[in-house]
Design brief:
The protein is mostly beta strands. The chain has a domain of 60 residues. Strands 2-1-3 form a three-stranded antiparallel beta sheet, with no helix packed on it. The relative contact order is 0.30. The structure holds zinc ion. The site of zinc ion has 7 residues, from loops.
């Protein structure tokens, strides 16, 4: 689980971008922290290009395959292509 110290740097969102499990090697919809829904492994994505592929890490037998779920989206004030957070 992602951790933080200063809550004033985080805000809640109702965006459905946080609800969609994403397939390995699929397009990263925004920069942020993604967690594997199978084992909880977290990664940081710049939001440019693809999420890690299905070989990123191994699961023990019986653990569902890798899918990525957005847990923290970054918000940037830079011009494109960096400004495409989930808001
Ligand atoms: Zn995993």
């Amino acid at each position: 689980m992602a951790i933080f110290k200063y809550s004033n740097y985080l805000a809640t969102s109702k965006s459905t971008s946080f609800d969609q499990p994403l397939q390995p090697s699929s397009f990263a919809p925004c920069g942020g922290i993604y967690r594997c829904t199978g084992c909880g492994t977290e990664i940081a994505s710049e939001g440019i290009g693809l999420l890690p592929d299905r070989q990123h890490h191994k699961h023990a037998p019986g653990v569902p395959p890798i899918q990525w779920q957005l847990t923290v989206a970054t918000v940037a004030t830079h011009p494109q292509p960096y400004l495409h957070g989930a808001g």
